[in-house]
Each structure stands twice: as C-alpha cells, then as structure tokens.
Design brief:
8 helices, single chain, about 45% helix, 3-stranded antiparallel β-sheet, about 325 residues, alpha+beta, 6-stranded antiparallel β-sheet
C-alpha cells in the first residue's frame, strides 16, 4: 500500500446538530488516490470521538460502506449520524475513510473532517468544522503548548492568588506559633543571624576582605551571598516532604497542588525581604551610604524566585 499516493477529498460538506446531542454529517467523499475503494476489502467511512483534554478515544463509530466500488476520481455520498457523549467537556470528532482490520487512513496522513464540539448541560455546540491532517493538528498543538508554557504559570498564580496569600500567611505564622515574640521572629531571626555572622567573622576571627581592615567588610560580603541562599535552600530543602505537610489538603480537598511551589517560595521571599532591609540598614550604618546599585535588587530577586520555583517543583515531582 502506497500511503503517499492514497488520498481523499471532502465536497459539499454539511454538518449540523439535528437534536440536543445528535450530529449529522453529510458530504461527498471523492477518491483522489490511484486505487479503487472496494467495500469487500473492508473500505468504509466512519468516525472517532476523542476527549480534547486528554486525547482519549471515547467512541469508535459505526462503519458506512459504499454501495459499490469507488474508482479513482469517483465519489460516494456519506451520511453519518451519531450522538456526542453526554458528559460535559470538549470533544474532537475525526471523520475519515478506513479499512476494517487494516487502518484508519487519517493515521497515514490523509486529510480528514474534524469537528470540534463542546457539551454543556446536556446540550452540544459545534465550535468548528474543517478538513485537516494530523500534521496540521500536531503543529497547532505544539504552538498551543508553547504558548501555554508561558501563560499557564502566570494564570495559575493569578487564579489562586487568594489561596497562595492564605497559605503563605499560614506557613509563616505556623513557624513561630507558641513561641515568645510570635510574628516578630520574622524580623528577629534574620537580625540575629546577621549579628551572629558579624560577631564570629568580624570580631572573633577578624577576617579581612582584601586590604580593608574594617571588621564589617567580610561580614557584609558574606551576608550578601548568604541571604538569597537561605531563601533558596529553605524552599529546596522542604520540597521532598511538602506533600506530607499538606496531605490533608491533597487527599481531602479539591486543592490546587501546583500552587505549593509558589507558597513556599513566597514564604522564603518574605523572610528574605526583611533580611535584605536589615542588611541595607547595616550597610548604611557601616559605610554611611548605600550604593546606587541597590536599585537592581528587584531585577536580581525575580530570576532567583523563578529559579527556586523551578528547582522546587522538579525536586518535589521526583520524590
């Protein structure tokens, strides 16, 4: 069988909804290949119904064989009537010639009639009817997937921003619940951390940075790299057990699991913001001024947040 030479054309296409879920597709199927179509060899016209979201085959339709052989250049009228699934969702209907127990010709690259339909509240709506090939659909899916790769994370965060805000607040309050000081530890923790490093490296070890004899020089240099690392390591370190931490939400509620990376990354970012503010204040007290390059901090934090969310999501998915 030469799949390249075999082909078909759809003429005088008329597709309509004849009832709530009933579809009627009438057209002339022209044989533009170089071989005759013989019903005794299993040739027929039929349809497949797929779930658009999952690509799952839902219905393998009844066959309609031609009354006789269809010679090259000839045509045969086709009148297919079928019902769409009653379950709400989006469905793709592929109408194509086929040979029983041999193949569906649309899988060989033949053009086929594609119906895109939506079922809601027991009623169907035809979105689009056109003649396409699998290559066209794959190209469109690739373009759509590429666009969704950029828009889906943003839309997910925007759609669940209330949930993320609640979960971040819950996570921060839960860290210090029952402790003396409560929420103030969000500020006290990075402050004590920086004072500890300053005491150890600046006063005890008297570590110097270059030719600068100031005890604060190395401590400030060290903290400039340590503060963003703490926010990153916190999120990455909790990634393997985050599903266990939120098992009640995951198992018992309709919960947006894809927001979990954002929740912990934002929690670490809140602590980092307070630490950066204290670091900037310490820099001002130690040097008497803050360099103008501090305006680039937001531009540096954005890729850090994106990188942390990506590493976190990858780590949690592999566990």
């Amino acid at each position: 069988m030469n799949a390249v030479r075999r082909n078909a054309a759809y003429e005088d296409t008329d597709v309509r909804l004849s009832a709530e879920l009933q579809v009627q597709a009438r057209f002339n199927l022209r044989n533009t290949s170089g071989d005759p179509w013989r019903p005794e060899e299993g040739f027929a016209a039929s349809f497949h119904i797929y779930d658009s979201e999952t690509g799952t085959l839902v219905v393998d339709g009844e066959r309609q064989s031609p009354p006789g052989d269809v010679a090259p250049g000839g045509s045969v009228p086709v009148d297919l009537r079928f019902a769409l699934p009653p379950e709400p969702g989006r469905y793709d209907v592929f109408i194509s010639p086929m040979r029983e127990n041999v193949c569906w010709f649309y899988t060989l690259g033949w053009p086929f009639l594609r119906l895109e339909a939506t079922v809601e509240d027991g009623r169907a709506r035809l979105e689009r009817v056109r003649v396409v090939t699998l290559r066209t659909i794959r190209r469109e899916n690739l373009l759509r997937a590429t666009g969704r790769a950029f828009t889906l994370p943003v839309s997910t965060v925007a759609r669940n921003r209330g949930l993320i805000r609640t979960m971040v607040r819950r996570d921060i309050l839960g860290r210090y619940r029952g402790s003396f000081g409560g929420m103030f530890w969000t500020i006290l923790n990075p402050l004590l951390l920086m004072l500890t490093y300053f005491f150890v490296f600046g006063l005890v070890l008297k570590t110097k940075f270059g030719s600068d004899p100031s005890p604060t020089r190395f401590a400030l240099y060290f903290l400039a790299g340590m503060l963003p690392w703490l926010a990153f390591s916190e999120a990455a370190g909790r990634a393997p057990t985050v599903m266990l931490e939120h098992r009640n939400f995951v198992k018992k509620l309709v919960f947006a699991v894809e927001t979990l990376p954002i929740n912990l990354v934002v929690s670490g970012l809140v602590t980092e913001i307070f630490a950066v503010l204290l670091f900037t204040l310490g820099l001002f007290l130690a040097r008497g001024a803050v360099p103008a390059s501090v305006v680039w901090l937001p531009a540096l934090i954005v890729p850090q947040v994106l990188f942390t969310a990506g590493v976190w999501d990858r780590s949690s998915a592999s566990c």
